Amino acid sequence: MTAVAERVVASAAETFARRHRFRWYEALPWLVAVAGYFAFPDYLALGSQILATILFALSVDLVLGYGGIITLGQAAFFGAGAYTAGLLAAHGMGAPVIGLLIAAVAAALVGLISGVVVLRTHGLTQLMMTLMVAVMLHEAANKANTVTGGADGLQGMEVGPVFGLFHFDLYGNTAYFYCLAALFICWFVMRRIVHSPFGRSLTGIRENEARMHAIGSPVFRRRLVAYTISAAMAGVSGALVAQTTQFVATDALGFERSGNVLIMLLLGGIGRLYGAFIGVPLYMIAQDRFAAIDPVYWYFWIGLLLVLMVTFARGGVLGIVDRVGAVLRRRR
Amino acid sequence: MTEAAASAALETRGLCKSFGALAVANSIDFRLARGARHALIGPNGAGKTSFVNLVTGALQPNDGRILLDGADITPLSQAQRVKRGIVRTFQITTLFRGLTVLENVTLAVSERLGSGGDIHRPAGSRRHIIDEAYALLERLGLHDDALRPVKELAYGRQRLVEIAVALGLSPKVLLLDEPAAGVPSSESGTIVDTIERLPTDIALLIIEHDMDLVFRLARWITVLVAGQILVEGAPQAIAADARVRQVYLGERAHA
Amino acid sequence: MSEILSAAVSIGFFGLAFAMVLYLISVGLSVTMGLMGFVNLAHGVFAMFGGYAVTTLMNSYGMPFWASLICAVVIVAMLSVAFERVLYRRLYGGDELDQVLLTIGLVFMSVAVAKYFWGPLAQLFQPPSELRGQVDLGFREFPAYRSFLIICGAVLVTGLWLALDRTRFGAKIRAAVDNLRMAQAVGINTSGLFTVTFALGSGLAALGGGLGAELLPIYPGYATDYLVYFLIVVSVGGLGSIRGPFLAALLLGIADTAFKYLLPEIGSFFIYALTLVLLMWRPRGLIGPS
Ligand SMILES: Nc1ncnc2c1ncn2[C@@H]1O[C@H](COP(=O)(O)OP(=O)(O)O)[C@@H](O)[C@H]1O
Ligand SMILES: [Mg+2]
Predict the structure, then answer these.
(1) Interchain proximity C96–A255, CB inside 8 Å
(2) Structural domain contains residue C1
(3) Which of A35, A199, B91, C283 is an S-S bond match for A194, by CB 3.0 to 4.6 Å?
(4) What is the pTM of this model?
(5) Protein residue whose Cα sits closest to atom 13 of ligand 1
(6) Residue C224 falls inside a structural domain
(7) Which H or E run includes B104?
(8) What is the mean pLDDT of residues C267-279?
(9) Ligand 1 within 6 A of B45 CB?
(10) What is the pLDDT of residue B249?
(11) Does B44 sit in the ligand 1 pocket, CB within 6 Å?
């Protein structure tokens, strides 16, 4: 190989490597999370919910932001995980980590089975199918209220200590770190996935499906794998919420949940791995402050925000940061 | 008969496809010999691109069979057909416009080697894939643009990248859908040169509008009109064929 | 035997009335989605405001039923033009996700706006006196208002189909749904066509919302809670089709009524499951664009 070629290939490899190398700002969410623990000891319950919801939004980012699959039914997987963990805990199997793993498998199964159907279609039909899967599960949970407790919630969950050591305490210390640890692991896995050849091929499918078919990529299978992984992550998120609040009701499967998570992700920025870390806390903290005052106005402002963002700030907060950064760089 | 069939790289039998009332393939019996330099011509809307879509599996036929090396591949998916060596380029450039030229080719090579779906390692960690992609670019004279995003390239260069991506898949049968479409004639020379220099073990089907280009490249021509094969033959015979003239002159008159 | 027959007649009758309302509301959605390729989850908002306009004009301003209906259609159609011009238009041919998010935003806002102006409860809807009570069809009595819905729906549907088949405007719409670029190439003003179609579709939805206020009560959650119904009609019927959604509305209206009557416990579940199966069987809907 000539020297020039050597240099170009090395430079290309370097570009690839740069993508998955850790950068300083990737430590920020975790530092903030730990700092938040010390700064706001009275808000640990909200903190745990935020951490679990970030995971839920990450799961949406994988299918939507990377896979390009618009889903109105991600709550199906969240709810599947939540009910799995809840039912286990209500029937004497309260070991949380095992519950989490089983919930992940159960949600993944729902994802795999529904994915086989959903991912064969496109556009509105696909959107409808994701919605139908969720409303079907919602309806089933409602009607099976002898098992699920329906809208009033599952009774009698008893969640044991984490690893038999750390009891879930009244202040939410254990819950907070339990959620943080689960989020960290899932984030780490997802980060590897999106920077792997598999992740690149997902982006390829989103950008140009015809081209991916033409280079012999098994498009359906790739999407199915992503859909299943995403479902598992959503399931873990649901299980975290169920275990830390010791409560599951049918709203775990509701349309609002699927819709809200889309909004949170849009707010942070879709398809960039960190959108969830920004959009979810922003949304949930604002909701905690303002929604209590009047939930009706809350939805008005959220709706307005959505309309304005789609019209003017498509990339979310991270998109705005990018743009400001680009302007500053040009100035320099 | 059987010997003749065995020597075809690609064959279609009774291939039919309609969109509603419009038949874009009307019982097409077609043979592409090994190492062929074969052109498929015909007026706009004749069904040439649809034929490529049928052969590569982007479209499912209503009827008929497609054989590769005598083996029926009709039920196979696009991906499976690519694995067996049927590769196409697009009439309208279909690339990852935001990615570099090298990345476009790398993605193809990596799919061919079966590592496009690896989930446990970072993308770009297999140097030999990048090496191979780069070598391909050198062969096509695209190496100077290797690290530029495709969208920054002139259209003619993008057409070459289409071919580079296809070659990254090690095709046995290569279907080039109007490789010089949309390229100013001053630049189409490079494309023709590139096609001329393709390895002779690739069976080549070129779909083209530009007659000069067809007569330069093809040793056998099939004329498709309204989803049906009108006539086949050597270039001189086709050039002299009254029906073909009529089709083309008729079209010119309309245009 | 006669009981079964009587139940079947009831289901058919109430199902048909429900189907008419569903169709009136959804047909505009099907055409606009087919025409502009725009995923509009906020279509129910127009039906809801149609319903609010009708009930408010009747209850608070004492306007007659018919006049209220006409006013509601006109107001909503005009409002919808503003929405189309300002918000929808810039997303035509764009990202589906943007369309989904924009229209979810509109739905959320509509919930809050409705609650602010009309409170959380469902609006009182009283059919005009001439449409109250029962009508006797010889072998049986039927509620007058539902009978009116069926007749009214049948007349409107026939009119709509004839208009689409026979008028120049209808021909333009059909051409544009079939092949937008071709329609533009032959000189159809598609931008104007979009606006007019959108206004018509929204007006019809307002009409459906107003007429159907007894079946689908008008309350703030209208646009979210019935969204699934409208989407089922459109996706099962087939985007861009006029007749497909009618078939789907019939199926949904009658199946929904039958399940509520016979198997209230698991009715909705079966409706959703049926939708999923129908979409698997025919991903483009029962009847594609004509
Ligand atoms: N997916 C499709 N749906 C409906 N009609 C199509 C589709 N693809 C192609 N056609 C029509 O089929 C005919 C043949 O198209 P094509 O194969 O692209 O012709 P060519 O490549 O010979 O110009 C054209 O009239 C085109 O409009
Ligand atoms: Mg073509």
Answers:
(1) no
(2) no
(3) A199
(4) 0.91
(5) B45
(6) yes
(7) helix B101-112
(8) 89
(9) yes
(10) 61
(11) yes
Atom of ligand 1 nearest to the CA of B207: 21
| Contact at CB, A197 and B116, closer than 8 angstroms | yes
Q: Is the per-residue pLDDT at A296 higher than 80?
A: no
State the residue range of the domain holding C179. 7-120+141-281
Residue pointed to by tokens 């009618």: C246
Chain C positions touching A302 (Cβ under 8 A) are: 105, 108
The string of DSSP codes covering C40-105 is -TTHHHHHHHHHHHHHHHHHTT---HHHHHHHHHHHHHHHHHHHIIIIIGGGTTS-HHHHHHHHHH
The pLDDT value recorded for residue B168 is: 95
Round the average pLDDT of chain A to a whole number and report it: 90
* Domain assignment of residue A265, given as a range: 2-331
Q: Does the beta carbon of B46 lie inside 6 Å of ligand 1?
A: yes
Phi, psi of A92 (to 5 degrees): 80, 5
Domain of A166: which CATH number? 1.10.3470
Q: How many CB atoms lie within 10 A of CB C229?
A: 21
Contact check, Cβ <8 Å, B169/A192: no
What residue spans of A40-122 are helical by DSSP H?
A: 44-60, 75-90, 96-118
**CB half-sphere exposure, A295, CA atoms < 13 A:** 2
Non-local (6+) Cβ contacts of B50 within 8 A are B17, B24, B25, B59, B227
Model confidence at B5: pLDDT above 60? no
The structural domain count of chain A equals: 1
Distance B58 CA to ligand 1 centre (A): 13
Q: Are B61 and B35 in contact (CB under 8 A)?
A: no
Chains that touch C (3 or more CB pairs under 8 A): A
For helices C190-211 and C43-59, the axis angle rounded to 10 degrees is 50
In this structure, what CATH number is given to the domain that contains residue C31? 1.10.3470
Rounded to an integer, what distance in angstroms lies between the CA atom of residue A54 and that of residue A23?
20
Instruction: Write down the mean pLDDT value for chain C.
Output: 89
Chains near B with 3+ CB pairs less than 8 A apart are: A
The alpha-carbon gap from A8 to the nearest alpha carbon of chain C, in Å, equals: 35
What is the edge-to-edge ordering of all strands in the sheet holding B63-68? B22-33, B8-19, B63-68, B71-72
pLDDT in tens, A227-239: 999 999 999 999 9
